[in-house]
């Protein structure tokens, strides 16, 4: 169940705060579902007048970002409220993609914003295995089926295909930002799609954000108090917490007796 926490403040309105932090999609589909569930509850709550995505993330999976964005679109069709994004330390790559779905983006003067683009990385140990006289037998149904295998030598065809995939993903990301930010952008999207990050003031000058500020500034501007919608812990988190309690608590008890 989503936990709610009322913060101090006597505003006439209430903003539903949803935290989006860490690497996007790092914990898999269950984590994503819980984030979407928190966003849905923030929009559906009768206590909230607006929803705020409080973002602190270097990016991650574009698929997960797209899933969250599409969910927001569907949720707002039934419960439309103003949606703001506040970038804390960093809102880059897939995290900036999510921020761009908001009606307004705020970031601190010291926030890092942007990284519009895509990348694909793979290790290659072919030279090392050659020196060790180690061979891998690969049976693939097509010339590109094994193109990212770390123990096989890269091929020109595979490199071209990987480059094409990265460019397609980057172009989709760029088009999305151009569509969402529109005339707010002060530079052609091609100049903003270098993978570069900018500090808050420069991001504002480029039109990537709408305002220099923090969550407190937003709450003050909208005369709002905040209601925090926290996602439930994933099953793995719950298991790890249970294991920790079973190990750490008896140890601390024993240590207390020995002191």
Topology, please?
Blueprint lengths: L2 E4 L6 E9 L7 H16 L5 E8 L4 H17 L4 E10 L1 H6 L4 E4 L4 E3 L11 H6 L24 H26 L7 H4 L4 E3 H7 L4 E2 L2 H7 L2 E7 L4 H24 L1
Parallel strand pairs: 2-3, 2-9, 3-4, 4-5, 4-6, 5-8
Antiparallel strand pairs: 1-9, 6-7
Helix pairs in contact: 1-2
Give the structure's gist in a few sentences.
The chain is an alpha/beta fold and 259 residues long. The protein contains 9 helices and 9 strands.
Description:
Helices cover 44% and strands 19% of the residues. By secondary structure, it is α/β, with parallel strands linked by helices. Strands 1, 2, 3, 4, 5, 6, 7, 8 and 9 form a nine-stranded mixed β-sheet that branches. It is elongated and about 70 Å long.
Shape: elongated
Rounded to the nearest angstrom, the radius of gyration is: 23 Å
Q: Give the helix/strand class.
A: alpha/beta
Total number of helices: 9
Count of beta strands:
9
Main attributes?
44% helix; 9 strands; 19% strand; alpha/beta; elongated; 259 residues; single chain; nine-stranded mixed beta sheet
